Amino acid sequence: MRHLLVLLLIKFYVFDLNNCTGGTVKNGDHKLPTVGISVLVRNKAHTLPYFLTSLYNLEYPKDRLYLWFYSDFNEDNSIEIIEKWVEKHSLEYKRLYVITNSSSGSLHNDEAKCVQWTPQHFTHVINLREKALEFARQMWADYIFMIDADVFLTNPLTLRNLLLKEMDIVAPMLISDGLYSNFWCGMTEKFYYKRTDDYKPIQSREKVGCFSVPMVHTAVLINMKTLASDLLTYDPKKIPGYNGPQDDIIAFAVNAKENGMELMICNEELYGFILIPLEENDELKMDYEQLLNLKLLAISRGRPLPLESYMEADMQYPKPWKFGCNEIYMINLERRTERRKLMEMSFKELGMDVTHFSAVDGKRLDMKNLKERSITLMPNYEDPYHKRPMKAGEVGCFLSHYYIWETIVEEQIPITLILEDDIQFVPYFRNRFLQLLREIEELDWDLVYIGRKILMDDKEEFVTAHTTKPLYSYWTLGYLISERGARKLLDTKAVGQHAPGRRVSTHHV
């Protein structure tokens, strides 16, 4: 049964369900630990659909989970999204608390904009963190998982894996679209971030495992079964002799260390992703662009941010267009359906109108009978770096591009963007690409790489602020080509006097 209590315009929902399950109980079987999950939400309507889906997808018995949401000082519809999710899933959890305050306004009294971390903002968050700890203690929860609403756990086993470690305080390492993550490897005597040689190898997962660090935040699992956990606090005022900043995560880290509790970061698996916090001079809308960057990064890692189907209808995507080009092609082997699916997801997020071009499959090429297809390999050709002849896959790749060049010339397409199906879009790709088009307007160009392996970087001459005249390069990940450029490539007679008949198909994605 759901109970609703309204006090001073603050909504407080409590849901309780005690499930009885059938099946055989074996002697010695134990229940999994109970976990309280604390979520603070402010202006996260754009992240909540993905966050809530990833939370729901955690493979852990929901009748062992207590959820505690608190949301106020919003200027978007965060509360409505939470309530919609609660309405659908509340009865599946052991108990679910949602506290929302729609009358708080959008700013604290000392804030000029919501992204500022002012004294009142810090004090408010510290008080909420303290309430979350108290919530876990009152529920007799074995653990509490402090997680923010801009975390996306794409690994459903995250919670199970962390619990198995039986550590006092542990966090899953989260990836952003830069070097930012949810841990520090160093802290100065004045409690500032300290650069160390350990950070990057852990963040990039060159070193894999669980590591003791001075700071973890944003997604932190705390063992509440230890006596020391009763001394944990986020409030600087409760820490004897504390002379650090009014900051919840720094106070918590210092307090945990003083009470002999080790903070650990674990990166042995890819657990999920995290947004980079906004700076005080940023606008909230910049968070939307950063979310797009993160979604594209997750897609490129083969871990797209999850989204429940009922939330899909409320999502808005850019209207597809050609990004200032006359045509965009994506080359993809028909048997590589997963690559195509992931690329189509990226195109949808970017609003990119792309035509799919079925690639020539090198596995179906008979390298001994290429002459029958009017293809002749250059005598004694070998790769200048690997010192070997071309492979069948490379021949197939070349032919795929060749057939597109033919299409460009036949259809007289002025500017074409050609992409392969294993590319990763850099952060702020749309803005960067359009800037590139503006920069090369005055150049007399035939082909412009937008993705390649640069082999002679220090010897290349800049011709605009962001373009150079390329020397020998590897890969054809992505490039712009003009009709004239395509014609020049065809005029090289790269496949003999008679090009093989095109046996590929195109369709829009």
Largest beta-sheet details: 10 strands, mixed
Any idea what the radius of gyration is? 28 Å
Alpha carbon gap, first and last residue: 46 Å
Strand fraction equals 15-25%
Question: What count of helical segments does DSSP give?
Answer: 12
Short description:
By secondary structure, the protein is of the alpha/beta class. It has helices at 48-56, 78-89, 119-138, 158-164, 199-203, 248-258, 285-300, 309-312, 337-350, 392-411, 429-439, 483-491; strands at residues 2-7, 10-16, 35-41, 65-72, 95-101, 143-148, 151-152, 169-172, 174-175, 183-184, 210-212, 215-216, 219-223, 263-266, 272-274, 327-332, 355-358, 415-420, 447-454, 461-462, 468-469, 473-482, 506-508. It is 27% helix and 21% strand.
Detailed description of the structure:
By secondary structure, this protein is α/β, with parallel strands linked by helices. Helix content is 27%, strand content 21%. It has 12 helices and 23 strands. The strands form 5 sheets. A 10-stranded mixed sheet has the order 1-2-5-4-3-6-13-8-14-11, sandwiched between helices. Strand 3, helix 1 and strand 4 form a beta-alpha-beta unit. Helix 10 crosses helix 12. The longest helix has 20 residues. This is Glycosyl transferase family 25 domain-containing protein. Pfam families: Glyco_transf_25. InterPro entries: Collagen_mod_GT25 (IPR050757), Glyco_trans_25 (IPR002654), Nucleotide-diphossugar_trans (IPR029044). Keywords: Glycosyltransferase, Signal, Transferase. GO terms for molecular function: procollagen galactosyltransferase activity.
